[in-house]
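Retro notes
What went well: the complex prediction finally ran end to end.
Inputs used:
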Amino acid sequence: MRASRPAVHPVEAPPPAPVAAAQAQAQGEGDGVAHPRGVRMKDPPGAPGTPAGLGLRLAQFFFAAAALAVMASTNDFPSVSAFSYLVAAAILQCLWSLSLAFVDIYALLVKRSLRNARAVCIFTVGDGITGTLTLGAACASAGITVLIGNDLNICAENHCASFETATAMAFISWFALAPSCILNFWSMASR
Amino acid sequence: MRASRPAVHPVEAPPPAPVAAAQAQAQGEGDGVAHPRGVRMKDPPGAPGTPAGLGLRLAQFFFAAAALAVMASTNDFPSVSAFSYLVAAAILQCLWSLSLAFVDIYALLVKRSLRNARAVCIFTVGDGITGTLTLGAACASAGITVLIGNDLNICAENHCASFETATAMAFISWFALAPSCILNFWSMASR
């Protein structure tokens, strides 16, 4: 009967609050409701230095690497400029996303925010450049793939399946890059 | 001799000052130095509702229309999907840029700022979508053009010059669209 008295709850309630706040801070997902005024807002999910941001980087790396591997596995890709360009863009995308994934892992391990003005600016410009190159390479490859497969119907003598898979992977990599770029640009503009 | 007396100038000088300020406000190019604190910053050059913004829109429209005209002047563009897609994307780009050019002209005529939150959001999303489509179409056409001209060397039986011109015009249209999109996104994020 003592457990149902209202006095029990105020005593038990306070301890979990700081732990939850610390966890929320560590994960960068706090909504800022429990924080005092003047404390900086937490990074939105997907920003650099958050688990979602790391997930986006790893997705970009994985799909760019898949596009690179599938395209490089065909023996005749160097005969088409657009496919060679896709390989080059995928290599650049892999290097960029892997570098930023390591930066994110470091930021998560030492529990530091990456909302430094210069870092966000570099991330935004790099995301913009690699994103434009990846989208361009994916579109150029898609144009060639559609030309071979639908317009000329010469899939029998080409690796249409591989070309299509590599193009699709490059597009997915770009779709994973777009949120990172938009979030970085937003956080650069809104400071 | 009366005209050279210094007393003449103080009488004539004051009127031009408010006129110049009004002109600077109307053109959206005031640097805000002469304004009291708390007054909203003027639109940056290139934002919607400024002469530079109108120039960017007209450049987008002109180059997209040029790409459309040059590509449509070849009789065999429908045989290649990427070229048909370029025509479709150029039509969309023309319509979008022309609409926003009219909005800019209206805003300039009635001397109103277009920094409305909903308007900027619509401009940004529309710019992003048309920009992605135009870049994709330009890259796909470039891939095909390079395939025809450099990889297969069959320019003799194709309109390589027209395809190259249309692709270049589409790229220039995208280059004129990028600043509009970035400025709109910046002003949306920084409010």
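What we learned: Chain A touches chain B at residues 79-82, 85, 132, 135-137, 139-144, 146-147, 150-151, 185-186, 189-190 (CB under 8 Å).
What to try next: split runs per interface for comparison.
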